[in-house]
Amino acid sequence: MQTNIDQNIKDIQNKIKLACEAINKSPDEITLIAVSKKKEHFMIESALENGIYNFGENYAQELQEKVSKIHSDNIIWHFIGPIQSNKVKIIARNADWVHTLYREKIIRKLNAECEEIQKKINACIQINISSEETKSGCSPHEVIEIAKLMKSMKNINLQGIMALPKLTENKSKRKEMMDSILKCSLDLQDFLPEARSISLGTTSDFEDAIMNGSTMVRIGESIFGKRV
Ligand SMILES: *Cc1c(COP(=O)(O)O)cnc(C)c1O
Predict the structure, then answer these.
(1) How far, in Å, from the CA of 96 to the mean position of ligand 1?
(2) What is the per-residue pLDDT across 104-155, written as a single tens digit (0 to 9) for each?
(3) Euclidean distance between CA atoms 116 and 218, whole angstroms
């Protein structure tokens, strides 16, 4: 089946608009990140032609390869996968944003790599909101400590937080998670007012995420089709 990327983008943008209307927010305040991991270059180019400029990648080498082959002045690359120490250099050189920072060693290394190429990189602190053992991220009470470290790093621009909450049908559990993500963000903004970004929401939950304060949604499959 051919994936109809332009129609998919229109559908997502419309859903974002409706979710924003429900909370009296302008859709301009939401960044749509098209998650292009494991997808071919022509698909990214097709999304670019439809006015999408933010792309999310999970694997350092794949990011590097795409950056070297896809040329557009406006494209913004977001690294959203787990970060291995030996991949930090590649990420520093190819990403404009990193959403998955929380380990001190990686933060220091990323800063050093960015310093070497005189670049400032945008970053979010990843929070493991449901304390899942299989998920990465710091716990909510560590956010400010990590924010202090990141603020002291000259080549890292701390922009906000990122979370990947567990999908659950249980509405009160879901609400509890959303409230604690928002609290983390407000605590962070008390410390650093400009760090307002909340990177939250995927294909499965972006509308609910927007209604709970998300400013950046990361959407893969409903734009590019199922990943195999
Ligand atoms: C793959 C991925 C997404 C996109 O998920 P979809 O279900 O394809 O929308 C979003 N965020 C992260 C961190 C991911 O790894």
Answers:
(1) 18
(2) 999 999 999 999 999 999 999 999 998 777 779 999 999 999 999 999 999 9
(3) 29
CA of 128 to the centre of ligand 1 (A): 15
Regarding the beta carbon of 58 and ligand 1, being less than 6 Å apart is answered: yes
User: From CA 104, how far away is CA 155, in angstroms rounded?
Assistant: 15
CATH number, domain of 88, equals: 3.20.20.10
Span 172-183, pLDDT tens digits: 999 999 999 999
Domain that holds residue 8: 2-224
The protein residue whose alpha carbon is closest to atom 8 in ligand 1 is 220
Counting the structural domains of the chain, the total is: 1
- Between CA 124 and CA 115 the distance in angstroms is 18
- Output the pTM of the full model: 0.97
Nearest CA to ligand 1 atom 13: 80
In the 8-state DSSP scheme, what is residue 196? -
Tokens of 25: 């927010």
Closest ligand 1 atom to the C-alpha of 221?
Answer: 8
Cβ proximity of 101 and 110 under 8 Å: yes
